[in-house]
Each structure stands twice: as C-alpha cells, then as structure tokens.
Amino acid sequence: MSPPARTPGPVGHGARPLATSPEPRRASPAQAPLGFAAQQLKKRIDSNGPVCACGNHGCLEAFFGGSALARDAAAAAQAGRSTVLAELLEQDGALTAASVGLALGRGDAAALQLVRDGGRRVGSVLASLVSFFNPGLIVIGGGVAGLGHALLAEIRSSIYRQSLPLATGNLPVVLSELGGDSGVIGAARLISDAVYAVA
To answer: Is there a cis peptide before residue 15, judged by omega within 30 degrees of 0?
Structure first.
C-alpha cells in the first residue's frame, strides 16, 4: 500500500500549530482559521486538571504553557525538590520558563522531569493532529521551544509512538529557528498570502 500524500504545510507548537494543504477537502493558507493555534492550546487533556486562563480546566496551556511551567517550577523549588530552582527563585524573585531552561542546563533533575512531562503532553496532542492531517513537517516554536532538545526528544517520542505508522514514516519534528518571532512571522506570511492570492 502506498503511503498517503503528505500535507506540505507545517504543524507546530509553541504553541503555534498550523496546517495547510492545496487539497479541496482541507483549508488553504488563506482559508485556514487563524484561531487554530489557540484551539490546540485550549484542547482539554484532563477535565480535572488546573484552571486555564480561559476559565476551563485541564487545557494543554494550563499544563505546559509558559505560565504553567513557571508555576510548576516554583512549586518544585518551594517543596525542596530542586535546589537549583530554589536558588534561582531566591535570586530573581520569580521563576519563568527560561529559569527552567537554566536549571536544565545545570543538570537539575526536577527541571528535566518538568520538561519531559510537558513534552509528553504536547506530543500526545500533536500525535492526534498528525494522524488526521498527515503533515510533511512539524516545527516546535514559541517560548517553550527554548528548552531545546530535551523537550524535542519527548515530543518526538510521543508523536512517533502514538501516531499512525504511515503518517510518521518520514516525518521530521524540529525546533523553530525563528525564536520568539515565529508567531509574528507566521501571521505576516498568512496575511501576505491572503492579500496577494490570485483571484
């Protein structure tokens, strides 16, 4: 059996998911809903999970957005599970996703566990999208992408383990090279495509 044709556009998280396709049954870049990225951040993965900024419980963002990661890092520091995070908290007065990255670079086990847990959750959400959209590329962007290859490894593992084999046979999962500007650049590209599209 021949593998299905791949969707040429990227699917990403940062969370900045985007899927595009020239096929009639899927939206073109100009037609794709701009709220798609936010919809994936708001995907409920545990109805008993923490309260999200949107008011719901257990959204992906509530588990592994920048604010959620800072919250969990502070909890780890205050509970004595991480001396490195505790030092950073005392030094800076507050923790951020970047603080977790610093602790990760210093070999902190608690920071590594936070990243692994978050990566598994992100990967599980993306796995369902991969099986449906069959993308040709997944790009992980946004602030949490700064956590680097420890995060990427967990996301890849979850996607490859949970997605359909035909969809992941030759599927690159990479970190964005655009840093914090990825969302702005992507939005500008969508607008440009819509404005200059041939009627």
So the answer is: yes
Report pTM. Answer: 0.73
**Using CA atoms, how far apart are residues 199 and 186, in angstroms rounded to an integer?**
22
Phi, psi of 198 (to 5 degrees): -70, 130
Q: Walk along the chain (199 residues) in steps of 10 and give the mean pLDDT of each run.
A: 46 42 36 43 67 77 85 96 96 94 95 94 88 85 84 94 87 83 82 85
Measured in degrees and rounded to the nearest 5, phi and psi for residue 106 equal: -95, 10
Which architecture characterizes domain 7-18+33-186 according to CATH? 2-Layer Sandwich (3.30)
